[in-house]
Structures are given as C-alpha cells and as structure tokens.
Amino acid sequence: MFSTPFVLSFSLLLSLPILFFLAPRFLPPLQPQPSLISHSDELEDLALFERASNGNNNNNPSKFSHLSTGSNPKLKIAFLFLTNSDLYFAPLWENFFKGNSNLYNIYVHADPTVNVTRPPGVFNDRFIAAKRTYRASATLISATRRLLATAVIDDPANVFFVVLSQYCIPLHSFKFVYNSLIISRTFDLRTKSSSDAELTRLGVRAKYKSFIEILSKSRNLWKRYTARGRFSMMPEVPFEQFRVGSQFFVLTRRHALMVVKDRTLWRKFRSPCYKESECYPEEHYFPTLLSMSDPNGCTHYSLTRVNWTGTANGHPYTYGPGEVSPELIYRLRESNYSESYLFARKFSRDCLRPLMSIAYKAIFRD
Questions:
Q1: Residue 314 to residue 251: CA distance in whole angstroms
Q2: Residue 237: exposed, middle, or buried by beta-carbon count in 10 A (0-12, 13-18, 19+)?
Q3: In the chain, which end has fewer C-beta atoms inside a 10 angstrom radius, N or C?
Q4: Is residue 36 a contact partner of residue 272, using CB atoms and an 8 Å limit?
Q5: How does pLDDT run across 321-336, given as a tens digit for each residue?
Q6: 3-state SS class at 267
C-alpha cells in the first residue's frame, strides 16, 4: 500500500519532535568559559577605582604624583597605552611628545606575563601596575579602567584620556592634537561651539565631548548580545540599548570618572561568554555604558583611523613598510566627522624605519 521510502520518510518526520524533546537530556549543556578575572584582582581594582572616584588621594598618593606638581597646572592630555608586546613605535612617539612635557602624561599597561622592553625617554617609569590580558575578554576592559583610574588619580590636570595600542601611530604633531582637543571650537564638525560661560573649574568647556565610536547597528550585534545567554544582560542592558564601537577612544575626565565609578554594567560584561568567537566585550562595554549614561556627551565617532577592508580573524588591516608614505598619512587623516583623524592603526612593527623617515616632512607637518 505504501512504498518503503515513503514509510521511512514519514517515520523520520515523526521522530524529529521526539529527538528535539529528548536532546537536552542526552547532550551536555553549553558551558560558559571560565572567568579570567580572579577575586583578588577584582578587589585590587575596586580599591583603585574607589580612590579615583573619591577624588581624595592625600593619604595614598600615586607613585606618579611627583610629575604632577604645580599650583596652577596647564590642562593635559593623558595618553594611555594598552599593550601585550613591545612599544614598537616608541621612537616615533618620543619625537611626537618632544618639547611638550608640561602638556601631557603617559601611562602604560603592559601584560606582566610578557617580557616587554621598557623604552627610555618619555616612557621611562610610566608603566603602571598591570594584570594579564586576553584578547576578546573582559580583562581588556579591566586594563583600560585601570589606566583611566591611575591617570585620574595621578593628575587633576588630565582632562582628556586617549586610549592607544602598540600598533597606533600619530597622524599629526602634538601641537595639532592638543589644540584640536583642548582649544579648538571647530574641530568637531557636528557640534556647535560653546560660549565662554561654559567653562569648568579647570577651564575646559563643559560641553566638550568624548570621541568614542557608538554604533547601534552591526551585522553580529544580536549574537554578541546573547553570547552569555539570551537573557543574561537583562534587565540592566536591553538589546535596544546594546552598542558596539572601537576600544580606542578619547574620553573627557567626566566620562573617565563615569567608567571608573560603574559597577552595574561591569557585573554584566565581566561574565564569561559561551563562544569566544562571538564575545568581544571590550568593543561593547564602553560604548554601551556611555550611550546609556550620556549619549549627547559623546560624538559617536572615533579619532583613530582603522582600515577594516581585508580583515582576518577580527583584526583590522595591517599596513606594511612598503605602504608607508606621506600620501598614506594624508589619506588616513581624512574624516567626515572632524577636521581630521588624529591617530591610526594598525601598522606592523617593521614600519618604524619608514615612519621615522617621513615623520617631520609628513606626520608632524600639519
């Protein structure tokens, strides 16, 4: 009456619901990755963040405070280097900072499990107490918060905080960068200038914004949101408020303190993910936190130029020494949002020599 192939097909269809029901009983459930942040590390970080949040460091001064003296300090930019290898472009940055020692501070977080060479000059004695970091994990959030907290504690004149990596280079002279962030009222093409009345105690306009990329749409946003479990981010972070953006940004002091003081969102983002390939918390925590806390206080774009064409394994395009030229620097500066990009990544370590050869005829010539 019925052919054998028909009976087999019908039997398989009937068995699918049974298999769907019984599968969880036989297949092991997905397990999240183990936490990479120990309880002792968490407690040490919390103590540091409390010091930065309270703003009273007289009883426990930073080891860097001897560099931050002066009754009337000038406004400064804090440059925060996050690295797990040597600072390949230290000589280039040395030339960048030359002659401006009263206008910046440097802080370096280097993975202590890696034998990182500590360069002399401006980087001398600028390495902070660091902990191990892992790619695509909350340890990168912790390291960045550690840098921010240390810089906040160290010098009240630090008003902007620039997060960089060992693969970043400057695209302009220090003077151009400083004037763009501290002085210029036209640098951000999407914001009207502020009046003289809008000044803080240190002289920084209250309406200065943080330059951080904040995107609400991304191809894998839902997968990343549910990387810890479908409802793990609720109720603090609904999907509609989940954001993505570059981990390299420029924050105002006000926003640096917001990041350091946060406890609520950190508890969500520090949780390990089920799949490492869908978990990049360092690209979500900062834009989500600032978007939820002060969306109008951020530009929603970054000042660090990145080339995402030809990416591999989540890494941006890496420029090689044969590609370094004045023309490349000029192209990387071009921006639709500000008068110029200020920094760029990613450059291979062997780009140092060609970069040094064009430093004064292209990079530092604004």
A1: 24
A2: buried
A3: N
A4: yes
A5: 999 999 999 999 999 9
A6: helix
User: For the CA atoms of 149, 154, 158, 161, what is the dihedral angle to 10 degrees?
Assistant: -30
306 SS3 class: strand
User: Among 37-41, 135-139, 308-312, which stretch is predicted with the lowest mean pLDDT?
Assistant: 308-312
User: What percent of the chain is predicted at pLDDT more than 70?
Assistant: 81
Helix (H/G/I), strand (E/B), else coil: 338? strand
**Please, which residues have CB within 8 angstroms of residue 72's CB and are 6 or more apart in sequence?**
none
* Strand-pair partners of 205: 199
Scan for tokens 């010098």, then name that residue.
Answer: 155
Contacts of 363 (CB under 8 A, 6+ apart): 92, 169, 170, 171, 172, 173, 329, 355
Selection from 123, 355, 136, 158 nearest residue 251 by Cα: 158
Q: For 56-112, what is each residue's pLDDT tens digit?
A: 454 444 455 434 444 456 899 999 999 999 999 999 999 999 999 999 999 999 999
Spatial distance between the Cα atoms of 110 and 119, rounded to a whole number of angstroms: 12
Tell me the percentage of the chain whose pLDDT exceeds 90: 72
Both structure tokens of 343: 């920094």
Tokens representing 90 are 């230290």
CB atoms within 10 A of CB 289: 22
* SS3 of the chain: helix, strand, coil, percent, to 5: 40, 15, 45
The encoded tokens of residue 164 equal: 């960089």
Among 267, 241, 229, residue whose Cα is nearest residue 142 = 267
Alpha-carbon Rg of the chain, whole angstroms? 24
Task: Compute the distance between CA of residue 138 and CA of residue 325 in angstroms, rounded to an integer.
Answer: 36
Rounded-to-integer distance, Cα 258 and Cα 251, Å: 10
Element (H, E) at 326: helix 326-333
Phi/psi for 241 (5° steps) reads -110, 5
* Region at 297 (left for phi over 0; alpha for psi -120 to 50; beta for the rest): alpha
Q: How confident is the model at residue 123 (pLDDT cuts 50, 70, 90)?
A: very high
Calculate the CA dihedral of residues 43, 45, 47, 52 and round it to 10 degrees: -160
Asked if residue 241 has pLDDT above 60, the reply is yes
